[in-house]
Amino acid sequence: MRSLIKKRIANFISNFYYNSELGSHILTYHSVSTEKQPKEFLPLYNIKPEIFTEQIKLITDLNIKCGTIAESYNNSCQLSITFDDGFVNTLENAAPILFDKKIPFTVFVTPKNIINHKNIFMTIKDLKELLKIPGAKIGSHGFSHVKLSDCSDNEMTDELINSKKWLEDNIGCVVDTISYPHGAYNHNILNKLEKINYKFALSTKFGRVNSKVNNFCLPRIDVWSNDTIYEFKNKIFGKWDWYSYFSKY
Questions:
Q1: Residue 110: exposed, middle, or buried by beta-carbon count in 10 A (0-12, 13-18, 19+)?
Q2: 3-state helix, strand, coil in the chain (%, to 5)
Q3: 1: pLDDT strictly greater than 50
Q4: pLDDT (tens digit per residue) in 172-194
Q5: What mean pLDDT comes out for the span 123-140?
């Protein structure tokens, strides 16, 4: 009940919010499935395939130009699509829809989930298959999905380096982008990323991407399972950017 009331208040604010700043938006998805995920994953982040299909149809119907994260940063597109965690249903359910519409996307992967053989996540073979899709890219989501801001300096450096190296060595692709696990980062992390050859880092803070934004703390817009198509449309048009004031990272 409390969550429903919060959502109604948020919708009310979004109807009146206006931001004149130019920029693009990066969407964050997690799981796209009808199957129930393990308890540690919130239902809020498990979107039904038919809902995902409807959202992508809206994007194409509105002629919204989709591109890579680099293109979002350069404002040469209006929207980028990302997936956190590397669920196998990203390959099975989401990728075919995006391929059909020629929409690029990036999947952020945690190597430890693959090493531990958790069957809800993509395997090395799956990730290689994913990369055969035009426009598909893979990024790091930390080596073990811990909050980087809670790590010691050495632990944090290992998480950043080892996740990148493991993916590059095993998947055979360049990894130059990271999505912060839990959205958590600090200035110490920002100072290390360029030295480790990352180009972009993505947070969970709402907002739009433009020249004023640090390339190592790019904002994104969460897509939730209880979003109506009207709410989703408001999100991609920046009507939820105000929510950044309530985001820690």
A1: buried
A2: 45, 15, 40
A3: no
A4: 999 999 999 999 999 999 999 99
A5: 97
Amino acid at 103: I
Distance CA 90, CA 231 (A): 22
DSSP-assigned beta bridge partners for residue 202? 179, 218
Q: Is the dihedral of CA 126, 144, 184, 223 positive or negative?
A: positive
Q: Cα 62 to chain center, whole Å?
A: 22
CB of 59 within 8 A of CB of 233?
no
Alpha-carbon 63 to chain mean position:
21
Name the residue among 243, 109, 74, 116 with its Cα closest to residue 181.
Answer: 109
How far apart, in whole angstroms, are the C-alpha atoms of residue 131 and residue 126? 9
Scored b (16 or more CB within 10 A) or e, 185-199 reads beeebeebbeeeebb
Look-up of token digits 């480790």: 196
Residues 47-92: pLDDT tens digits? 999 999 999 999 999 999 999 999 999 999 999 999 999 999 999 9
The SS3 of residue 108 is strand
What value does the mean pLDDT take over residues 11-21?
A: 72
Which 3 state secondary structure label does DSSP give 28? Answer: strand
Which tokens is 203 given? 């947070």
Domains of the chain, earliest start first: 23-246 (3.20.20.370)
